[in-house]
């Protein structure tokens, strides 16, 4: 603390000596006293801009400077070396100084408030990171142990219906935990690890994985050649959630199509299905956490309303957004993502990828 106090006192002492020298100049050169008079007030204003004092010292210094300069000007007026109008400069300079004090005080209060907000946010982020670590451990451990015992029972020939149901429920809990933790990390500054993603290869890989999951009419539409600046794993999770959602709400012979298009630096990846569509009153909240377009079907299809919330969080983390169009003929979800770099030479897609049953 002494290392900080010494420069402050040194600067203030230097100003006091400078002010005393100018007061002496006002006494010595009466006809030119307006010059040192202004030097005193300007230097005081500059000093206060760097050293914001508490109210009491500020008022004492202001009263001292105003009183001394007023007395000297009054003395010179009586000796005929100054006009009466010069005396009005004292209250004017005092008012200007007080206005500067008010602004400086408000700025100091604002800075203090910002520091408190920053400290509070840093503390919140630290607590959230601890929560994520603890929650990940505390929630996964009992699920892993319980599943291990149930799998052991099934391996020993005790594959009862109850054991299979319990295993399915534990897997469901694991998926919920993973998605909750993903949503909790979405606000972290290190949530994304962006890199250049070759779009054609990426979407082909996602498409081929899902085309083997369930009997649907799987279609891979047009894909512009180029690279997207994005977190590949996060983008894969978002598309998996959209395709899982499309799979839940389509019948066996319905079509599900993955396609992409580009407009300038924005890429739009679409997942279109021929499902039952989304009710109009649910479209406004479809991306909310735990939102369900059809609550009666969510449990049967294994969803708790987190998939689309994850898609929305990942899109926003990339600086983009997710939109949806829906009718009785089906739904189309679109990821709008910045960071697109087009290639001039297109690569032809294998014909077997165009339509997969």
Q: Which ranges are low-confidence, i.e. pLDDT below 50, for 5 or more consecutive residues?
A: 1-6, 295-302
Task: Note the overall shape.
Answer: elongated
Range of helix content: 55-70%
Fraction of residues in β-strands: 5-15%
Q: In sequence order, what are the helices and strands, one letter per element? A: HHHHHEHEEHEEHHEEEE
- Determine Rg (CA atoms, Å): 36 Å
Tell me the strand order in the biggest sheet: 6-7-5-4-2-9
Secondary structural class? alpha+beta
Summed over residues and divided by their number, the pLDDT gives a mean of 76
Biggest sheet, open or closed, and with what strands and sense? 6 strands, mixed
Distance between the termini: 75 Å
Number of helices: 9
Task: Describe the 3D structure.
With 357 residues, this protein is an alpha+beta fold. It contains nine helices and nine strands. The radius of gyration is 36 Å and the shape is elongated. Residues 1-6 and 295-302 have low confidence and may be disordered.
